[in-house]
Amino acid sequence: MKLRRAPLEDWLRDYYFAAEIDISSSGVETYTMAELRVKAGVRQADLDQLVFDDGYSLGRPALRELIANGWGDGDPSRVMTANGSSEAISLVLSALLRPGDEVVVVEPGYHLLVEYAVALGCTTRAWRLSAEDGWKPDVDALEPLVTERTRAIVLNFPQNPTGACVTAPDLRRIVELAERSGAYLLWDAAFTSLVYGTEPLPPVSTLYERGVDFGTFSKAFGLPGLRFGWCVAPPDVLSECVRIRDYTTLHVAPLIELLASAVLENAPAFLRPRLEQAARNRAVVADWAASEPDRVSLALPAGGVAAFPRLHGMENTDAFCDELFKRHSVLVIPGSCFGAPQHFRLGYGGPAGQLSEGLERLSGALSDWAG
Length: 371
What we know:
Layout (H helix, E strand, L loop, with lengths): L6 H9 L5 E2 L10 H8 L3 H5 L12 H11 L7 E4 L2 H12 L5 E6 L3 H9 L3 E6 L10 H4 L7 E6 L12 H14 L2 E5 L22 E6 L12 E4 L2 H11 L8 H12 L1 H24 L5 E2 L8 E2 L2 E2 L6 H11 L1 E2 L1 E2 L9 E4 L4 H19 L1
Helix pairs in contact: 4-10, 5-6, 5-9, 11-13, 12-13
């Protein structure tokens, strides 16, 4: 397989660690080890007793059971732990897809969910979200894309980078489309817990026998550095994932799985504060966009902690985002990284003070640019 470059990672690789203010991220404010230990009740003795032995190919049985009960249908045989959801997604795609398969993807979208199937030799059919419609997903537009030739439908809602989400009735229709074609329905649920004014969507693996859910600590949990994720999938799919994994990572490290177990046993303690913070910050972003009506258009995100505003008068925001970083030390992501060059990704999951300062500098940069 031949993977094309990932423009998002290229941009972050150059700027992520050098920016004074980061308002680019699609995740929430990160926790420290001290905070993790307090919230999850991890004692020094728990760490000292850990043996750095090899691990289970699909994950520690107790951890798989924990995930199955909280994020699946209760069957641990359908769970695999992973080194971040990116590993789980790439393993499942590699296990399921063959050259010539048709795969439905969402655009604009995160590169792994769009490009990996292309690298495997598949033909992708894009379900395109429209800025003019406020990025609202139109299931009627999805329906003709799903045919008897469709091998997989790869979705993530709430969506990255737009923050768009589907409703529960929409989800039922999507499941019906997958069932009708016999396609696998792969659902990146990284932002499931980050929704506003509504309940999180149920796992697709509980709705459809070929439904596959992916979870991660990198977004709503505020623990991206742990690189922990999981998937819930049919056992035969997981068996094929293990065959591939035997040539790469083998398993998740015992230390990571120990910490992951403690976090998942105390999930609300990690999720609730960050969701409350995100809701407050979302209102700040809405007020900022309303104060810039001549320069900014924003469809307020229904979920996640990233918005995807459009900058008026710019056909491509790359140069502006570069100038914003170099002159104002503020990091955002140009929309070209997602195939929508008139937009940029604005992350609002971090500290409130940093967000306000970043937006103030962003407005100043817009004034300088127009002048």
